[in-house]
């Protein structure tokens, strides 16, 4: 079975500073069509999940360019170039190839 | 813009069937470009995909839940439903519906391009 592993699980960040979350898949998410089927979601307190990144690196509409997704194959990262107070919540990576599978989540909090 | 809204009982007894509906408004289920899915999040835990359906009726399930799950699109194409049989306390969760961009590739494997929007979620508690 494919397993998605995120690190760290908890991420305290000072506003204005960068933050980075890693996501590793036990199986390659690179399809023969050249796309990486990895997505990132943010669940803010009391809200439903919101799509940040799809196909590994494409920002969803309305997502600030502070959010950057990169990686290929089995190793991916989400970088927030300058964290803002509104970025607080739990970030999930999600395999979007064959069986949809989420990572454990990374809780970002403001220092 | 498209909106999704989950509805159904908030309390289900153990061994019974959990039934939820997702109403799609300001848009149509009948688009070949999208699938429609159910997800859940147990209290204090992470997200789990349950299954997906295309308006044509094609379905696709999480192998861990497949034997207990039915997802259907209603004939009016304004909502889709989830039935989860033989529930236990471990099925207690916030259940979400969402629209999925993507398709099945030439080998019938799901390749997704984003789940958006999501409903607000509905808490279902399994308890006697």
Strand content of chain B is over 45%
Label the overall shape of chain A. Answer: globular
**Number of DSSP strand runs of chain A:** 11
Overall strand count of chain B? 11
Structural class of chain B: mainly beta
Helicity level of chain A: under 10%
Strand content of chain A: over 45%
Q: What is Rg of chain B? A: 14 Å
Uncertain ranges of chain B: none
Percent range for helical residues of chain B?
under 10%
Largest interface: A-B, 26 and 27 residues
Overview of this protein structure:
The complex is a heterodimer of chains A (111) and B (128). Chain A is mainly beta and 111 residues long. Chain A has no helices and eleven strands. In chain A, the strands form two sheets. In chain A, strands 2, 4, 5, 6, 9, 10 and 11 form a seven-stranded mixed β-sheet that branches. The termini of chain A are far apart. Chain B is mostly beta strands. Chain B has strands spanning 3-7, 11-12, 18-25, 34-41, 48-54, 59-61, 69-73, 79-84, 93-104, 110-118, 122-126. In chain B, strands 2, 4, 5, 6, 9, 10 and 11 form a seven-stranded mixed β-sheet that branches. Chain B has a four-stranded antiparallel β-sheet with strand order 1-3-8-7, with no helix packed on it. Chain B is globular and about 45 Å long. Chain A binds chain B through residues 31, 33, 35, 37, 39, 41, 43, 48-51, 54-55, 60, 92, 94, 96-105, and chain B through 37, 39, 41, 46-49, 52, 62-63, 96, 98, 101-102, 105, 109-116, 118-121.
């Amino acid at each position: 079975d494919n397993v998605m592993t995120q690190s760290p699980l908890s991420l305290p960040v000072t506003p204005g500073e960068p933050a980075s979350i890693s996501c590793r898949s036990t199986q390659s998410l690179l399809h023969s069509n050249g796309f990486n089927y990895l997505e990132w979601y943010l669940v803010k307190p009391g809200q439903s999940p919101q799509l940040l990144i799809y196909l590994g690196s494409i920002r969803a509409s309305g997502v600030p360019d502070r959010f950057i997704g990169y990686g290929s194959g089995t190793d991916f990262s989400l970088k927030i170039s300058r964290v803002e107070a509104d970025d607080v919540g739990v970030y999930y990576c999600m395999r979007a190839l064959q069986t949809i599978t989420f990572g454990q989540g990374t809780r970002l909090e403001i220092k | 813009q498209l909106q999704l809204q989950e509805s159904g009982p908030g309390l289900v007894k153990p061994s019974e069937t959990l039934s939820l509906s997702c109403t799609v408004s300001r848009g149509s289920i009948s688009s070949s470009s999208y699938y429609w899915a159910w997800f859940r999040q147990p209290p204090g835990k992470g997200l789990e995909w349950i299954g997906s359906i295309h308006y044509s009726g094609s379905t696709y399930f999480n192998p861990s839940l497949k034997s207990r799950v039915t997802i259907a699109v209603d004939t009016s194409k304004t909502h889709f439903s989830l039935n989860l049989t033989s529930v236990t306390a471990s099925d207690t969760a916030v259940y979400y519906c969402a629209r999925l961009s993507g398709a099945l590739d030439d080998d019938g494997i799901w390749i997704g391009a984003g789940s958006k929007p999501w409903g607000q979620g509905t808490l279902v508690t399994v308890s006697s």
